[in-house]
Amino acid sequence: MPSVKPQPNIKPTKQCYGSESARVRIAYYAGPEKKTSYQPWAFFLERLQYDTKTKTVHKDFFIQQVDAKQIRKGILEDSVFNMIVIPGGMAPRKADELGKSGRKSMTKLLKEGKINYVGICAGAYLCCDTDDDYQDSWNWGYINAEIMDLDHWNRGSGNRCNLSLTKAGKELYELSTKKSKNTNKPTLSIKKPRIAPNGVTVRYANGPLFLLNQRKDHEFIGNKVHTFCQFETNFTKHKAPLIQKGSPAIIGGHFGKGRCLAISPHPEKSTDKKVGILFRQLLRWTAQVIHLEGDLK
Questions:
Q1: CB neighbours of 59 closer than 8 A, spacing ≥ 6?
Q2: Which of 11, 101, 142, 234 could lock onto 255 through a cystine, CB 3.0 to 4.6 A?
Q3: Distance from first CA to last CA of the chain, Å, rounded?
Q4: Domain parsing of the chain, residue ranges
Q5: 226-231 and 83-86 beta bridge pairing
Q6: Contact of 75 with 28, CB cutoff 8 Å
Q7: Going along 48-142, which residue ranges are E strands?
Q8: Measured between alpha carbons, how far is 32 from 30 in angstroms, rounded to an integer?
Q9: The domain at 16-286 falls in which architecture?
């Protein structure tokens, strides 16, 4: 019996939440799918601890919806934002709507460290590499990872996708969210007020499989790619091979001075508090609010 898709508990009415002085300032690009469903936006707000009474999100976050036309016209150059998020949907549709000028704007700002990139499912397909046939259209090469087994991209979906946290994932989970007293910069101290779980369960829906560190060009020399979580479940629809389990599920690295996070599954659709903590920590890391050993600074 197919799994029932999760439903958000809120139906937000605004396109902008939080304070522009927050440490993580997100431009959220839903793509053409925005016209047919509010749910990805609602799920994302829930994971930012949206409060139904005050109708705001956690103080660390500011988030605003943006569209392709605004991106092409340079809205990401506005100093308000330090992150672009591209959620699930269909990667080619999002890339086509953004066009070459939208991609060029993001690439420039990411290299300069003025913006950081988060891709979830479709957005993760966009920021990786495949072969040269796809590179010019919708695989942008922002992280040193190739997409494995693209022929079986539609390997299935379900709510019981198990992930294990790696050493980097656990370290990230346990980092304190208190500002360091020794600096005015938005970095975080490395106290450990909570214990990371060994694993979590999230939704998966045809997200990419990653093969790391295949590129040797100058953009990625000395650039460590973190694996934060690994798959512990195989989805095998349409005779997909048994290669998903043990492969990276959530990865992060640098592109120029910017950071890129690629998330294959859908942690933003989980109501598990531990998944929410991990998700927000991943966003803080991508915004360069917190750092791990091996990061370029």
A1: 18, 19, 22
A2: 142
A3: 48
A4: 16-286
A5: unpaired
A6: no
A7: 61-66, 83-86, 116-120
A8: 7
A9: 3-Layer(aba) Sandwich (3.40)
CB 147 within 8 A of CB 125: yes
Q: Inform me whether the pLDDT recorded for 14 exceeds 80.
A: yes
Of the candidates 188, 192, 172, the residue with the CA atom closest to the CA atom of residue 252: 172
Q: Could you give the CA distance from residue 70 to residue 133 in angstroms, rounded to a whole number?
A: 28
Task: Say if residues 199 and 165 touch (Cβ distance below 8 Å).
Answer: yes
Amino acid at 26: I
> In this predicted model, what pLDDT tens digit does every residue of 233-277 receive, in sequence order?
999 999 999 999 999 999 999 999 999 999 999 999 999 999 999
Does residue 181 have a pLDDT over 60? Answer: no
- Range with the poorest average pLDDT among 115-119, 137-141, 254-258, 286-290: 137-141
Is the confidence at residue 227, as pLDDT, over 50? yes
Q: How far apart, in whole angstroms, are the C-alpha atoms of residue 100 and residue 20?
A: 29
Q: Hey, what are 80's tokens?
A: 């308000």
- Alpha-carbon distance 184 to 180, whole Å? 8
- Sequence-distant (6+) residues with CB within 8 A of 115 are 27, 76, 81, 82, 83, 84, 106, 109, 258
